[in-house]
Design a protein that fits this description.
Blueprint (H helix, E strand, L loop, with lengths): L1 H11 L5 H31 L1 H9 L9 H21 L1 H31 L15 H20 L3 H36 L14 H25 L6 H34 L12 H17 L3 H31 L8 H14 L3
Helix pairs in contact: 1-2, 1-4, 1-10, 1-11, 2-3, 2-4, 4-5, 4-6, 5-6, 6-7, 6-8, 7-8, 8-9, 8-10, 9-10, 10-11
Keywords: Cell membrane, Membrane, Transmembrane, Transmembrane helix, Transport
Membrane topology: Multi-pass membrane protein
InterPro entries: SLAC1/Mae1/Ssu1/TehA, Sulfite_efflux_TDT, Voltage-dep_anion_channel_sf
Length: 361
Amino acid sequence: MGTGIVSILFYFMPYNGRWLHYLSIIFFCLNVVLFTAAFVISFLRYTLYPEIWSVMIRDPNNSLFLGTIPMGFATIIEMWVFICVPVWGPWATTFAWVLWMIDTIVAAGVTLSLSVLLMMHSHEIKSLERFTAAQLLPIAATIVAAGTGAEVAEVLPNPDHALGTIMTCYVLWGMGTPLAMAVLVMYYQRLALHKMPPREVIVSCFLPLGPLGFGGYSIMYLGKVAKANFPATSTLDPSAGSVMYVVGFFLALIMWGFGLVWFFIALVSIYKARPFPFNMGWWGFTFPLGVFAASTIQIGIEMPSAAFKVLGEIFSIAVILLWCLVAARTARGAWSGKLFFAPCLANLKKDGEASEETIPA
């Protein structure tokens, strides 16, 4: 997700250059390699050791990260639309549409299933104090799929296919955004009553920027595509597309303002918690801030506004620098072998011990 959003920002930065375009292609290729490697490793892990899957899916924390799979895949689809479709033409467009359908099914499955599993296993969280912003990860999957679908719909040659994609995206946005707002209320209550999360997970304070940033970007881009598509397909009223465009823009602007509040809370939390140890959670810096930067850039394009373009450029540069820092420390931790661990495997041992106790002597 972090590498994918960096490739998108290199492509979209307001004050751009040809060399940044080439960098976006390099990061796109790197993202494909990283996603493929992670997916294959995960597939082999759960195929060779199927008992780990049941333990992981029951874990109230580790299971949430399944939402990162469709979100990471969505960044690949976006760059495919931006880079490959203009060069390779119709077959690349169809391929992007199929990939988006797969991503949508997975995203919806993750959002629906993990939301129910959270209720079923809520006793394992025990108290509001253990509630973290990571609860947003499976919910944000459908929001990201909605924004990606809007970009795919824009390049589809058949207006009816584009209309179906747009309508599906509005449903996906509706599945994720209101639920994300409900989780943000709970998370704010957790912060008000129990103060900051532990230093080990303090980076999760940036996660609210994800659904707010990409939620705003998605509804704004959907309105932009609907404005062109609805009149062409005689959908609803002749003014429907323009209405959706205007409403989408102002919703995005409101969500961007709400995101500023959480951005300030995250900065204060990070400042108060310093120093805090490096772990894989540091990747939580990149994607949420990256999609917030993308929303800022898109607002600057639609208004148009030089102020938002400058802010988008600043946020983009900050994300790229953060990626360099986190990637370097990840590589060092991976080389030493001290970075990767799976806390949920402790439950596997407990399950094994419980099974042994039930065996009669």
